[in-house]
Amino acid sequence: MLYTPPIARLVEELCKLPGVGQKTAQRLAFHLLRVPAEEAFSLAEAIVDAREKVTFCTRCFNFAQGDLCEYCADTRRDPTLVCVVERPQDIVSVERTGEFRGLYHVLGGAISPIDGIGPDELKVRELLERVRKDGIQEVIVATNPRVEGEATAVYLANILKSLGVRATRIASGLPVGGDLEYADEVTLGRALKGRLEL
User: Fold this and answer.
1) pTM to 2 decimals?
2) CATH number, residue 114
3) DSSP conformational letter for 65
4) pLDDT digit string (tens) for 61-91?
């Protein structure tokens, strides 16, 4: 045994965090043991507080502290425009742009037959119910630009179009500061198709 049992347990628990390997977990554990006790207890309290108080929005399935998340509760947002994302953290990325003032819908993943995830395992039914009930005019599909995200986008577009709702997809292309030399063919092709007037 390399550590006393409490330290070993702390390292083991920290290793369960995404992107945290054994060495990083050890560094974090030793850091938490060196900081003043109130800092360590404050972190522990924040974790417990978040677990106890954060739920899912009953409308869009984003993280929320009550029935509705801050976006669904904001009456200044456009209720006829919905941006569909895979995970709640994707909303933060869209919000950082400052370009979107509609509402959101979190699917909870993407269609992936190889992983046994079909439309029934996602919040697709709930999205379609919102479209029918809430007068939504456009759905922007902002799933990740991977095979699963693309399959999900195509699936949603087909259903939404049959309901008479405009379905759009976020454009994908080259990152700012990127070089054409390193772009793959699909990304460069999409950048060309999604070009804008100067």
Assistant:
1) 0.84
2) 3.40.1360.10
3) S
4) 999 999 999 999 999 999 999 999 999 999 9
